[in-house]
Amino acid sequence: MEELMDILTELHPDVDYDSCTTLVDDRIIDSFDIISIVSEVAARLDVQIPAEEIVPENFNSAKALAALIERLENE
Amino acid sequence: MLFTSYGFIAFIAILFVVYYIVPKKWQWPLLLMASGVFYWIADPRFIIFICVTSLSAWGSGVLMGRINDAQDLYLKENKETLSKEEKKAYKASNKKRKWHILLGCLILNIGILSVTKYTNFVINSINDVAHTGLKNVDLIIPMGISFYTFQTMSYIIDAYRGTVKPERNPFKVLLFTSFFPQLVQGPINRFGDLSKSLYEPHRFSEKVFSTGLMRILWGYFKKLVVADRIIVAVTALIQDTDSYRGAYVFVAMFFYAFELYCDFTGGIDITIGIAQALGINMKENFILPYFSKDIKEYWNRWHISMGSWFTDYIFYPLSVSPRMLKLSKWSREHLGKVIGKRVTVYLAAFIVWFTTGLWHGAAWNFIVWGLMNFVVIMISQELSLLYDKFHKKFGFKGKAWYSVWEIIRTIFLMSLIRMFDCYRNVPMTFKMVGSMLTSFNLKIFTDGSLLKLGLNKYDYWVLLAALVIILSVSIYKYRKGEVRSKLYEKPWLWYGAMSAMFIAIIVFGAYGIGYDSTQFIYNQF
Question: Which residues of A touch B334 (CB under 8 A)?
Fold first, then answer.
């Protein structure tokens, strides 16, 4: 989670990732940001997020993204 | 059968009556029959193409469904005995089988689309480069092939991904693909969004029906009162490039922006309105696009179904593919973090915008149009940090006047890029846009020249009134939400607005002697 928070904070330092649950819905992150996150997660956490998992529900909050990464790690 | 023809109006009127009279279980088969008739009238040969596409998607979906069912059963029966690795290997082998099925279906359908739509483009390009003199081939291009192929592909990709359950009834898949209102110019619906309300029985509801009817009228208002009126001037301006230069190009740019908006959103209003009157829910394809403050926002609001299709089925899969991730890693290591992290995103975006341009038409002007969008998006992406600093320093962001400036800037930029679509010729577009900077014939705005473009004073007054109405409705929607639901709360206002709209279309609609109602612009894509 700590590494993920670092990735997200590097992308948008001003966003409060602890409370925000509408990252995609409110266009705080866009498709370019999502690809940056996916690339960083692959490089730093060695978890590959497949295209079918790129849906707003998985990227709307840091918590949802962490849950996705955990699920993919356990698969 | 044009949406704007009397024949079509009679067609949907009969359909509405029969739809609510027949037993509920016959409603969706009736829609399939109606769609067949609609397509048959356009050209009976088209039916073969849409059937091949639908049946290939249905067959592929059924095969994938069988693999899924067998997998679920096998894993359930061997839950205790299989290790985690064995389960993983079994799933991976099934995924590979499904991938082969998907690939076969994609190759077949994209092959059909490519051959019918792009053969002559390839021949002409070879002729231009190699001066070979190859002759064009006379091919059938089925109506709406780009739309229904993309829609069907989204279904089969979603079935592969497991986000939709494959439909076992081939006729239901055929209806999803061929539902007639969407065949003219989209939107590109997703199976998960459309299927439920498309197949379920619908009881007549006065509110649902009249809301749909109001939306249809609004669409006709935009198409017949504005788009089909202003097209006369747009055609004159873009056809005579020797006479209409300089300030005329500026006029053409904004006239075309107004025409395209009313033509495309009007057509989508008619499409969604028809579906709504039948109790079927379609997702919105436009959310006030001309209120966008930047080009990225614009593409989130304009032709949403196309943009999201390219994002979900090309941009994301391409960007997160193992090869791209490998390239991303390599470029970070060799080009540094700053450039490295941009390489894959920009490469994927380039491919997306190239294909978006190609999807719009088999011609270089559309490809350049797509790539211009790519360039502007990339520049604004790179400048975004600078913009943020600027906004923080001066505190303009969020102020009304600055928002208006951002909106005007985006409209201007998008209208400028759209000139490639307008003139349909890349060197000519550059030449004409350049003439805006070299020919300062501003007197055309005062000396009556604009009255010689096929529009008289009466037409300009009608267009101005329509602009005020459309703008007022949009501002209301932007600030307070959906207009129709508010109007419906007061019956006198609702029926008053409906009657006013009907009368406006009859009195001010551009049809009859001297006018030729035109096909929707997006129908050609």
Answer: none
